[in-house]
């Protein structure tokens, strides 16, 4: 035992000496000095300078201070030219002497058919024959794993004092031929899975040498092995440093398993000794047992010393290495050690390393440490020991969940925090803060936060039940509502969910600005932003949250009960109760929802029904052949329930625009064939009446959009088309009459309009815009007594003297005019065989007059916002008129009528150039070419509300898209192509995709040469 302790002391001293010799090679500053002096030697040496640790990779902690990581050691003086020449000649001779030798062990490792167990046993047999030569082969194998062809011999192995010098010579000799893509990181098929195979080999090797007791009886084995591996772990070459670190970490992992085994054997021996002692067994037997205990104790001491040597010599320095892959490996293995050998590693001394790495600059490393901590928090045995660590690093974990850029790290951090919550280490206000991530734009984040919300629901639900008292826990209260009874506990759960969602919605508005970019906007009332997403329905915050939580709350899957809860008149029943002390009174007081909560629950109801239809709970895999039939039957059964539910909801909540939006969306989930199958034509007609009333009652954009979507869907069902079309015509007539009543024979082009009049006109025209977008409206809009198009032109021409309050009104007028002309063109195409020249010429002349009316608007950049809509309207008009070529087969009309006039083309390109200037100024784009050098952007104002980057890009790209469309269809000249292409790759991806459509003209040789 004394000999073993002396060997350990000697080995520890040698380790410290070798680390000191390489101490200047593991920090940014020292390595930079070394690299600078090395690169002064030869040009050949510069070929692999990336193998050095780069100084720019020095790790910074979250506090901003730089970890210098310089050990105490004297920096070598700069070498003279003669000294470099001597080193160079020595290096060349080393290379010529040792390079190119094959290594049987390495060849076996890359042969994936070779058994690792057999390979380890063969090595041990070789070691038992010639220990020095076997170990030399192992070290040479490690050098091959580093990508070096250099080898050592037994002399190098024995001389441990010169390991650092020998390794330096090997590195210098390997400069030229060293593999950049060394085996453990190589993506080559030859080395696929090599890292795992190497680690498995080391694990089996340690296991076998410990079982055969070579590990304990031959201390020089580990002593010599450590001398080389630890020295390589401080190398300036990444391949040496990384490979040796992986091997060292694998050694500690395997040694931890061996220590666990020896510890268990020692405990068994101790129990056996105590048993024999109680039995008063013979002394010889007790002596044998005591000897075993002593042997196990020595082995445990040796293993702990070896593990500490590797940890102090490798991990402590490499966990903060400049290479993130090395840091990641260190963190991963430390987590394994804590689980495998908690008696040593699950301690604050080692846990702090995980906490420090939470602020690592590499996302890969941060993700690895979060995964490692998640494993610890999920193990009940570690909870008590994690309390102090949690108190110290919890703010950082919450910060990562809220503000981390990498979405994968955020997801993993939230999962980790859920483990912290289950351990009881999160405060209520911290859980509330994390719950605000339910409004995050990333669906994966929202799904991960769902358990936090569910825990809040359960906690608040229990509090509500306690308020009701003991009777509420034992019985149900019968609530009279038709022929059914409801469980009050279910109602309380719905009330709790609504309360929390409303509370979170309000909290999200107060989130600090640093995280606000990841939060859904609360509403879409702004006209410009709503129009940006005009092709898709904007989803509310509550909708996105509901998509994340509904599948996890069993009570919400019972959406029929939720609908019944919403339909119940809580106020009426509450007012009938005589005594405030009655249990029913307390129940209604606690479960009755507020108006906000009802609106929230209606959105939740829509999501529940949507998920039930498109993501049902029944087993699909077991019924693949019948899936289509089962799906149709399930959708039909849901639709039958909605037949009666939707009208009832519309009647009860007709006063609320927000509620109407959710209910109208719910109506669109109904399978319309159900009305015909069950002969519910009258029910269908009544439903259309309710939809029309919602459309005409609410001035809300979203209500009108959803109502029109419902009507549009109804149009697609041919069996009930006549009923639908009749209702649409009624709505059109009602909208026109509303416009008539507001106009009152005024000339809207010049009339002085009050703010109330402008508001009413805006709403009326908006309704005309929506209803004209889904059905032919010419017969209703254009009559002998009243022309909607003339009124719309009057409103559009107000742009010359308009103010900001009239902007939306004018824009809606232009949009409605576009729909009117589109329907007129469709009418001509549908009746092309009966069209007269007079009728055709009239519509062409009408179209050309529009240009004369709108030319001043486009020319004056003061009206750039209106100019965008005017230009879009006119280009669309000309492009649509190209369809009339189909009725011009006999050249009845001049082809020039289908080409935009030259004057108009120039003014359109001028406006596009203005938008390009605007976008360039707001986004600070470089190298953009403009049409002219004139200062046409003098009107650009610093108004961030009107000229956000998003809106400016929309204006530019929409007009560019219209111009490209006109050029491709022959409505505009090809001479503008060079201007459009000149700014490719300078104005954003959207602009690039638009301009790329012109490539087809370049292929056909239709692009003119640049002027």
Automatic annotation (TrEMBL):
SUPFAM superfamilies: ARM repeat (SSF48371). Residues 315-400 form the SCD domain. GO terms for cellular component: chromatin; cohesin complex; nucleus. PROSITE patterns: SCD (PS51425). GO terms for molecular function: chromatin binding. Residues 1-11, 73-82 have a biased composition (Basic and acidic residues). One of its GO terms (biological process) is sister chromatid cohesion. InterPro entries: ARM-type_fold (IPR016024), Cohesin_Scc3/SA (IPR039662), HEAT_SCC3-SA (IPR056396), SCD (IPR020839), STAG (IPR013721). Residues 1-27, 63-82 are annotated as: Disordered. PANTHER family: LD34181P-RELATED, STROMAL ANTIGEN. This is SCD domain-containing protein.
């Amino acid at each position: 035992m004394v000999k073993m302790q002396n060997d350990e002391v000697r080995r520890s001293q040698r380790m410290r000496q070798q680390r000191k010799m390489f101490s200047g090679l593991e920090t940014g500053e020292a390595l930079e000095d070394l690299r600078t002096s090395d690169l002064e030697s030869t040009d050949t040496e510069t070929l692999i300078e990336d193998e050095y640790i780069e100084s720019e990779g020095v790790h910074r902690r979250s506090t901003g201070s730089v970890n210098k990581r310089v050990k105490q050691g004297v920096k070598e003086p700069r070498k003279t030219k003669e000294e470099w020449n001597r080193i160079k000649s020595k290096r060349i001779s080393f290379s010529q002497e040792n390079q190119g030798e094959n290594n049987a062990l390495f060849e076996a490792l890359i042969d994936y058919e070779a058994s690792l167990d057999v390979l380890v046993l063969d090595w041990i047999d070789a070691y038992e024959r010639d220990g020095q030569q076997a170990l030399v082969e192992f070290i040479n194998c490690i050098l091959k794993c580093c990508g070096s062809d250099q080898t050592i011999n037994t002399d190098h192995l024995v001389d441990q004092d010169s390991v650092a010098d020998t390794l330096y010579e090997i590195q210098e000799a390997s400069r030229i031929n060293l593999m950049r893509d060394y085996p453990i990181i190589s993506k080559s098929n030859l080395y696929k899975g090599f890292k795992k195979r190497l680690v498995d080999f080391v694990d089996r090797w340690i296991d076998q040498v410990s079982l055969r007791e070579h590990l304990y009886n031959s201390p020089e084995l580990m002593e010599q092995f450590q001398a080389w591996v630890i020295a390589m772990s401080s190398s300036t070459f990444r391949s040496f440093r990384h490979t040796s670190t992986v091997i060292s970490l694998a050694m500690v992992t395997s040694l931890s398993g061996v220590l666990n085994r020896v510890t268990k054997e020692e405990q068994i021996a101790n129990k056996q000794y105590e048993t024999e002692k109680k039995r008063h067994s013979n002394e010889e037997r007790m002596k044998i047992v005591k000897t075993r205990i002593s042997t196990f104790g020595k082995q445990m001491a040796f293993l702990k010393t070896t593990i500490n040597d590797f940890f102090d010599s490798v991990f402590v320095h490499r966990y903060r290495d400049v290479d993130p892959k090395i840091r990641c490996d260190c963190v991963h293995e430390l987590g394994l050690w804590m689980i495998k050998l908690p008696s040593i590693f699950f301690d604050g001394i080692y846990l702090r390393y995980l906490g420090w790495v939470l602020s690592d600059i590499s996302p890969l490393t941060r993700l690895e440490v979060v995964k490692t901590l998640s494993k610890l928090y999920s193990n009940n045995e570690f909870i008590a020991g994690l309390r102090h660590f949690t108190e110290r690093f919890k703010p950082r974990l919450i910060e990562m969940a809220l503000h981390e850029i990498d979405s994968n790290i955020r997801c993993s951090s939230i999962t980790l925090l859920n483990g912290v919550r289950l351990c009881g280490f999160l405060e209520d206000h911290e859980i509330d803060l994390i719950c605000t991530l339910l409004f995050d734009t990333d669906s994966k984040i929202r799904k991960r936060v769902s358990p936090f919300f569910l825990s809040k629901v359960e906690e608040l639900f229990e509090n509500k039940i306690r308020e009701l008292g003991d009777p509420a826990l034992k019985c149900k209260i019968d609530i009279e509502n038709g022929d059914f009874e409801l469980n009050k506990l279910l109602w309380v759960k719905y009330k709790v969910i609504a309360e929390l969602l409303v509370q979170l919605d309000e909290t999200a508005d107060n989130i600090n600005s640093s995280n606000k970019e990841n939060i859904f906007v609360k509403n879409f009332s702004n006209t410009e932003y709503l129009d940006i997403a005009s092709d898709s329905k904007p989803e509310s915050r509550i909708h996105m949250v509901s998509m994340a939580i509904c599948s996890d709350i069993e009570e919400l899957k019972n959406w029929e009960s939720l609908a019944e809860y919403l339909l119940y008149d809580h106020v009426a029943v509450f007012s009938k109760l005589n005594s405030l002390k009655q249990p029913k009174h307390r129940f209604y007081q606690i479960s009755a929802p507020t108006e906000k909560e009802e609106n929230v629950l209606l959105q939740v109801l829509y999501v529940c029904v949507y998920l039930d239809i498109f993501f049902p709970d029944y087993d699909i895999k077991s019924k693949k052949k019948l899936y289509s039939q089962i799906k149709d039957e399930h959708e039909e059964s849901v639709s039958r329930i909605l037949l009666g539910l939707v009208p009832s909801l519309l009647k009860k909540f007709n006063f609320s625009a927000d509620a109407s939006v959710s209910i109208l969306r719910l109506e669109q989930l109904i399978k319309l064939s159900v009305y015909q199958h069950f002969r519910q034509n009258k029910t269908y007609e009544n439903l259309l009446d309710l939809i029309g009333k919602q459309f005409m009652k609410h001035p809300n954009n979203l209500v009108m959009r959803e109502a029109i979507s419902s009507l549009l869907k109804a149009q697609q069902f041919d069996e009930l088309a006549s009923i639908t079309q009749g209702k649409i015509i009624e709505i059109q007539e009602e909208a026109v009459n509303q416009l008539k009543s507001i106009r009152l024979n005024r000339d809207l082009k010049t009339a002085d309009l009050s703010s109330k009049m402008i508001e009413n006109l805006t709403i009326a025209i908006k309704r005309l815009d929506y209803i004209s977008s889904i059905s032919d409206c010419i017969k209703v809009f254009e009559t002998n007594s009243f022309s909607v198009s003339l009124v719309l032109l009057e409103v559009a021409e107000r742009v010359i003297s308009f103010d900001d309050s009239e902007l939306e009104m004018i824009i809606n007028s232009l949009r409605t005019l576009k729909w009117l002309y589109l329907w007129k063109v469709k009418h001509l195409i549908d009746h092309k065989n009966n069209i007269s020249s007079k009728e055709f010429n009239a519509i062409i002349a009408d179209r050309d007059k529009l240009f004369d009316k709108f030319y001043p608007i486009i020319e004056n950049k003061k009206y750039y916002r209106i100019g965008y809509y005017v230009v879009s309207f006119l280009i669309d008009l000309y492009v649509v008129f190209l369809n009339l070529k189909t009725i011009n087969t006999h050249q009845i009309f001049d082809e020039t009528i289908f080409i935009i006039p030259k004057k108009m083309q120039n003014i359109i390109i001028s406006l596009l150039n203005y938008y390009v200037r605007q976008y360039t100024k707001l986004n600070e784009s470089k190298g953009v070419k403009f049409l002219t050098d004139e200062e046409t952007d003098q009107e650009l104002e610093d108004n961030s509300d009107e000229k956000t980057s998003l809106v400016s890009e929309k204006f530019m790209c929409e007009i560019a898209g219209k111009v490209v469309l006109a050029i491709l269809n022959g409505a505009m000249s090809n001479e503008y192509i060079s201007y459009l292409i000149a700014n490719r790759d300078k104005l954003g991806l959207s602009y690039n995709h638009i301009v790329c459509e012109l490539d087809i003209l370049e292929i056909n040789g239709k692009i003119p040469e640049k002027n």
